[in-house]
User: Fold these one by one.
Assistant:
Number 1:
Amino acid sequence: MANKKKVIVTGFEPFGEHTVNSSWVAVQELERLGLGEAVDLHVCEVPVEYQAVQSLLPSLWREHQPQLVVHVGVSGLATTVTLEQCGHNKGYKRLDNCSFCPSSQCCIENGPDYIQSVLDMDTVCKRVNDSGLGVTLSVSKDAGRYLCDYTYYSSLHLGQGRSAFIHVPPLGKPYSSQDLGRALQAAVQEMLRLLELDHEHGERCNHKHQHQHDH
């Protein structure tokens, strides 16, 4: 099917006290569930390494030309599935799994301090919470200045804002892998609906504009 939407969803490998990273477990569960017939879903496990992210993300965007890239990470502080609205450029002082951190402590030299997703996470959050899924979503504007935030900012930069980041709690605190997979599925499907509406609105505006020029 040539018109399939391409979506990439990533999780992270284990790090620190997270010997099992619930983000990758949740993404594997999402892969099992799928996003419907009209979506070509590609999943990928991301190393908790700044330099690996720097080389992996551009190739993912270039190779797959996705409509949307969603990154999923674990937060030991989270008790809800948390949608992040923006990524930050500066403040990366924490060492990664290779005991490395960028000397500039930033993602992109001279880049904007933060980049917002084109998706309105409050709308996504409300729609999923209203659907009676049994998993609570919330919205945040601080993805934590570690690999999660670094990855999100990089992807927002590469994709002109067509990216999202979702923080999940550790497994069993309080949600199972199945719960997290269902929450990811519902959230990503809502994100795709929003992108579709934006696209249709843009097409209508362009058509109207073109029509005015025809006369």
Number 2:
Amino acid sequence: MGKSFSLLTKQTGQDDGQESLTSPLEDSQTEDGKGGDVSQFPYVEFTGRDSVTCPTCQGTGRIPRGQENQLVALIPYSDQRLRPRRTKLYVSASVVVCLLLSSLAVFFLFPRSIDVSYVGVKSVFVSYDQEKRSVYLNITNTLNITNNNYYSVEVANITAQVQFAKTVIGKSRISNMTAISPLDMKQVDYMVSTTIADEMNYMYDYCTLQTIKVHNIGVMMQVTVTTTYFGHAEQVSQEMYQYVDCGGNTTSVRGMTQPFSVPHPAE
């Protein structure tokens, strides 16, 4: 009788211990509807022989605010957050946008030529020095300067010289002239003062000869236009032969040269 009672007591104590170990989980399952979603359960720290309390949250399931930027979360490799979404689309779109912007920049910023065309002699002012037998010509010329770029350019200076009989009879330099807008054209006038004297003083007799109306002489015009843009300087040069009337003042109207009625000095 005594042995059977002690055995029954031990079995009863083991059953009570097992019920005490499983009773919290079973009770929670019973209260939540027996087998509900596991995510609905509150955080439970299971401590036992083979378990250790988490040193971060100390069994509370919450991370201290002071350690938010110091802790590293371990994410499983199969987590959806590690899988890139539309990466190829974003990379392709970025490459296309970069190529488009680069092409537009090259198209608009690529330097194009500056065209310079000589229109002709606009006017000639003539004066004489009878004692020195010299002829003075102030020749005003006209240029058309065309900007083929998509940005403004500045005409830094115009350098010109005039030759007669292979001798330089006049030079001129005009600086800081004007700016030309993108895809625009401007007409620029410049003047060169020339002197025909010394070994060419025989031209005084020709230019003051009263028996002829037009006293044309052939001169060679040389002009160099310097333009600047983005710190880069570009030069365009031209040479052309022109006839000027050394017998009186003339002006050009719509491309035609008409003389002034200016009295000549008496011989």
